[in-house]
Design brief:
Elements lengths: L1 H17 L1 H8 L6 E6 L6 H5 L6 E6 L14 H11 L4 E7 L3 H7 L8 H7 L3 H10 L5 H20 L3 H8 L4 E7 L6 E5 L4 E4 L7 H5 L4 H6 L1
Helix pairs in contact: 4-9, 7-8
Bound molecules: zinc ion (ZN).
């Protein structure tokens, strides 16, 4: 904790004082451009990997970046999503998984969550991912399996979030775009799902079609159908 105390002091006495005008503006209200859903994993820092600052991302984090389908959980996820979309009017929702995700690994190996009943219960919200992996990727093992599971898992959450009425309404009006991302701890890079090519591809700035490619209406249908 010593490092945290020292960090708090340093932030308040140096950073906050230096950027006073900026922080004063934030006091008046927030208008983040995106809802960023990601894992609680300490190695994934939404603001760092997108080089954004306070006020720019509305963040929802939990173990395994899980978005339970509407009505499936009484947790704060649904309320956070509804608030971001209906009250803050975010135009984009990013669901960002990451490589070497412990929650996804525990999904594949439930024994890793033994003795943690709440973790097991939470991971049940990701049963669809587990089933997809079990049924479709029987021959894949080891790191490759985790890699594929991370990808499928993000796409399942993209499907789940569309069951939330606030999201469905805005999607239908064309006022919201969904983005499936994966952050790689090993390289610091992001790949984004392209519904056009039905695969995750490096996120690039120069590709004029990037924006369209990231917009997903029904990824699984396109992927498998
Ligand atoms: Zn994780």
């Amino acid at each position: 904790m010593k490092e945290l105390f020292s960090g708090v002091h340093q932030f308040h006495s140096q950073v906050f004082q230096r950027e006073r005008d900026f922080f004063d503006k934030l006091v008046a209200g927030q208008s983040p451009s995106a809802l960023f859903v990601t894992c609680s994993d300490s190695r994934v820092d939404p603001n760092l990997i997108t080089q954004s600052g306070p006020g720019e991302l509305f963040v929802l984090r939990n173990a395994g970046n899980i978005v339970p389908p509407y009505g499936a959980s009484n947790g704060g996820e649904s309320a956070t999503i509804e608030y971001a979309v209906a009250a803050l009017g975010v135009r984009d929702i990013v669901i960002c998984g990451h490589s070497r995700c412990g929650a996804v690994n525990a999904l594949l190996h439930p024994e890793k969550a033994a003795g943690m009943p709440l973790v097991s219960a939470w991971l049940n919200h990701a049963e669809t991912t587990r089933r997809i992996i079990q049924e479709n990727y029987g021959s894949v093992t080891g790191d490759d399996l985790v890699e594929i599971a991370v990808q499928e898992h993000v796409l399942v959450q993209i499907e789940n979030i569309q069951t939330h009425p606030a999201v469905a309404v805005k999607l239908q009006r064309g006022e919201l775009a969904l983005h499936a991302w994966i952050y790689r701890l090993e390289t610091g890079s992001i790949s984004a799902y392209s519904s056009e090519n039905a695969r995750f591809e490096p996120l690039t700035m120069n590709d004029p079609a990037t924006e369209n490619k990231q917009i997903i209406d029904n990824p699984m249908q396109r992927r498998r159908g």
